Amino acid sequence: MLFVPLLTVNADTLDREALLERMQGGGLVIYWRHAATDHGQRDTDLSDMSRCEHQRNLNDAGREQARQVGAGFERHAIPVERILSSAFCRNTESARIAFGEGRYETRDDLFNLPPVRNRQQQQALVAALQDYLVTAPEDATRNVVIVGHNINLQRAARVLIEEGEIAVFDPDAEAPRLLGTLHPEDLGPL
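Structure (tokenized):
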């Protein structure tokens, strides 16, 4: 098996100010790994995704991260065309707190990879995310936000991010091209 290292922020990625400026201009795909969760909880029954008590959920720090992200998008006037979210409660709660009820669309093709045992289904999820990462917003002055999971991003783009982190992609490429990453606190005042 060929080993391909995960991408990390390097000299080819933009610094915070340049990345925020690019986000303000639109035309990007912004991948946000859901905010911080309570790791004392586990995903135990995913047969009904509305049953949050059977999933790992946001903790208080995660809810604060989600508020920071929403306030940061507003503060920096980052335009958003669409917000796509995994159906997991930690993702939809992150999207709801940051952007408001009814602003996001839940997508089955953003389902978290680890619980999926069928290899073909896993490959379909990875391919779907790769397509999202290279598909520009319809309105080039706005961005698409995806609220997803780390393992999916690792498999689709070879990028590793922590809970609450944001990876920004230029969709004008054949393969996902990372412009840089941000932490929720990076969305504070310049």
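Confidence is low (pLDDT under 50) at residues 1-11. The radius of gyration is 16 Å.
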